[in-house]
Amino acid sequence: MKFIPDLAKLSLITEKIRQLKKRIGFVPTMGALHAGHFSLINQARKENDVVVVSIFVNPAQFTPGEDFKKYPRYLKRDIGFCRKLGVDFLFLPDKSDIYPPGYSTFVNVEVLSDVLCGASRPGHFRGVATIVAKLLNIIQPDTLYLGQKDVQQAIIISRMVKDLNFPVKVKVVPTVRQEDGLALSSRNANLSKNERSGAVVLFKALRLAETLVSNGQRNASRIISRMKQLIEKNKQVKIDYIAIVDQERLRRLKKVKPRSLIVLAAKIGKTRLIDNTIIDYS
Q: pTM (2 decimals)?
C-alpha cells in the first residue's frame, strides 16, 4: 500500500492506471474506520483492479457548534486496517491543499440538501458535495462506494454525479450493524456505556415500522407515531426527526409505498446518530 499526500501526484498515478485500462474503485472516508467502511473497501476490492481510499476529516461539512475537533481520529489504526484489506493507495491530503487560501467554490445540490439532516445541519451537505466532487476530479475512479447508513448523503451524491456528468458509477453498500442492531458509525465511539445501551432503540423503532408495514399498516403518520412512542420511553434519546420519504426526491409520504425510506435522526447525550431502512413489500 502506498501513501499519497499530494493531489497532483495522485492524479498522475490514477491517470497512468486508466491508461492501462485498469478499473479504479474509490472509498472516501473521514477515518475512524470500522466494519462498515471495511464492507465498502471489500466490495471495491472485489470489483476493481485498484482501490483508492481517502481519509480526510472535512471541516466544510461541520456546522457551527458541531464536533469537528472531537471527531474521532485513529490514523495509525486506520492505516493498519487499510493495509490488511488490500488497499492500493491511501490518500491523506492536507487541509491546506484541499482548501487553500482564498478558496471560494462550493457545490450545492438544491432541495435534497435542505431537508431531513439538511434542515438540522444547514450547509452540511454543501460541504459533503464539495469534497466528494473535488476527490472525484482528482482520482477519476470508475466506481464510487458509499454506505446505505448515510442514505441522504448517498442520494445527494448520486444526484450530483448525474447532474454534473461525472463519468463514475455510484454503488451503495448495505448498512453494517452490531449484534444488537445498532448501525456502525464512527460517532458511536463518543457514546458512554449507558448511552450506547440506549442507542439500540433507534434500530428497534425501525424494526417496529417494518413489522407494522408487514402487518398491513400503510399510514405514514401512524407508523411514525408508534416509532416515537417507543423511542421516547428512553429519556436520554432526543428525536430530531422521523420521516417516511421516497428515494428519489426525499419527499415525505402520507402512505408507505414499495421502496419507501424510513429515516430518523436523534441525539443520545451529545452524540447525533442517524439510521434508516428501505421498506420493500409486494
A: 0.96
